[in-house]
Amino acid sequence: MFPIRKLSCLTTNLLCAVAAINCFAIHSANADTRPNILWITIEDWSPDLSCYGTKGIHTPHVDKLASEGVRYEWAFTTSPVCSTSRSAMMTGFHQNYIRAHQHRTADKQPLPHGIRPIPHLMADAGYFTAIMSWKTDCNFLPDSRGELFEGTDWKQRAEGQPFFARITFGGTHRIWKRDPENPVDPAEVEVPPQYPDTPFVRRDIANGYEAMQLVDREVGELQQRLEDEGLADNTVVIFIGDHGICQIRGKQFLYDEGTRIPMIVRWPGKVKPGSVNTDLVSSLDICATVLEIAGAKPPVPLQGVSLFGPDLAARQYLFAARDKMDQTHDSMRSIRTKDHKLILNLMPERAYCQFSRYKEGSYPLLAEMNVMNLEGRLTPEQAAFFAAEKPEIELFDLKKDPHEVHNVADHPDYAEVKSKLLEELNIWRQKTIDDQGVDDNFRATGIFPEAPEGVNVDDWVEKNADKYDFDKYGYPGWFPTRSLEDWKKARETWQPWVFRSPESDMKRPMTTHSNKKKRKTKK
Length: 523
What we know:
Elements (H helix, E strand, L loop, with lengths): L1 H29 L5 E7 L17 H8 L2 E7 L5 H8 L28 H7 L3 E4 L13 H4 L14 E7 L29 H30 L6 E7 L14 H4 E7 L8 E8 L1 H11 L16 H4 L3 E5 L9 E5 L3 E6 L11 H4 L3 H11 L5 H4 L9 E5 L17 H17 L8 H4 L13 H7 L6 H4 L10 H15 L25
Parallel strand pairs: 1-4, 1-5, 2-7, 3-4
Antiparallel strand pairs: 2-6, 5-6, 8-9, 9-10, 10-11
C-alpha cells in the first residue's frame, strides 16, 4: 500500500503543479500590459520653459521630461480660456461643436450628437480613471469629478489594472507666487514687442516665471512618485498647458500668446528621447492618442488625430475660437498655418480691452499699459491693442512677425493668402463646428445707454447690477474703461505687489469690485 500511496501523492503534486502552470499561463495571457496614462495640465501658460529656449526661467523637471520624450514645438489649444478649452479636451471635439463655447456657462446641457467624455470611454476600455486635482471646468453635463472619473488617485485601482489619471497644477494661474529659492532676475527676461520694456513689465513677467518654477517642482515630485512606485517605465506621461499665458494679449485672445501651449509626451520604449516635433498639433490630438493607446472606440469620430499616426504631418491648418469670457462679450475665429495666422473678429465694434472685471482685477500690466497709452507713450504696435475698435480681419506673416503685431490683411502682397485662409475658415465654421455666430442679444443691441462721459465701467456695473441682466447681455462695451486718473490709481495699487520680495506674504490688492456676490437681474 505504501508505494501506491506514494505514487498517489506524487501524482497529486504533479497535477497541482500543472494546474498552477496553466493558471499562470492563462493569467499571463489575460494580463493587461497596456501602459498607464498620466495627463498633467498646467494652467494659463505658454511654452515659457527652459526646454523651449525661454531665457531667465529654470524648469529642470519639465526639461527632464522633454529629454526623455518628445517636445512639440507648435502645439495649440482650441480656445484661449480654461472652461472652453478643457471642455474640448474632455471630449475630443471643438467646444463650439458641443455647444460648450461660452466661458462660465450658466445653463449647462448634456453633450450632443451621442458624444461621451473621454474618461468614460477609457473606463469602458478597462482603465481606472482618476482626477487627482479639484478642477474639471467643463461647460456641459456631466461636469463634476465624481460623474466624470471613477476615483481621485491611481492607487485606488484594482491590482494589475492600467490607469488614466489627470491632474492640474494651478500655480501658473494668476496670483503668481514668487520663488524664494530661485528668484528670477528681471534683467534676464526678454520682453516681446507687444509690451513696453519697463521695470514694471519686466518684474511682472519675472514673477510669472517664478510661479512656473514652483509648478516645475510639483511636476518633479509627481515624476518621482512614478519612479518610487515602479510605474515610470510603463506610464505614458503627457504634459501640456490648458491655453496660453495669463497676460493681457495672451489668455482670452487668439494670438499665439493665447493659444500656443507646451506639449511634451514621454513614452518609454515608444518615443525617442529628446526628440522634437514641428508639426501643427492640437490639444484635441491628445484625446485621439489616449483612446488609441487604450484600444477604445469613440461612438462619434473625434475631431483630433493621433499624435503617432500619419495624419499629423499632413495637417495644413489649425483652428481656434473665442466667445464669451464671463460677462465680457466678444467673438473671434482663427485659422493658422505654419506661415500665417488669420483672425476674423465677429464683433469688430468692440475694443480688445473692453471691460473685463477678471483681467482688470488680476493683470497689473493692464494698468501699466493703459496709463502709458493714455499718455501717448506706447509704440504704434503696442497702442493698436488699445484702440476703441478692432479690424474685422487680422492677418500675420508668422515668419517675419512671430509676435503678430503687424496686420497685413490689407496689403496687396497677401491678398491671395487672405482669400484662401478666409475660405478655409468659413468651411470649418460651417462644416466642422456648425458655428452659431453672434446675435443681437449677445451684442447687447439697444440694451445699454451711450457711454457716460468719464465713466469707470467697473463702478457703473457695480451700481447698476440690479438693473441689467449682465449674464445675458454681458457688460457694456464702452471704451476706455477708466480715466487716466483712475488707471494711475490702479497702477499705484499694483506697484508694491509687483515688486514684493520673494519671501513676502502680501495679499494681492483689489483693484476692482468683487464678482462673487449674487447679482439680481431685472431688465
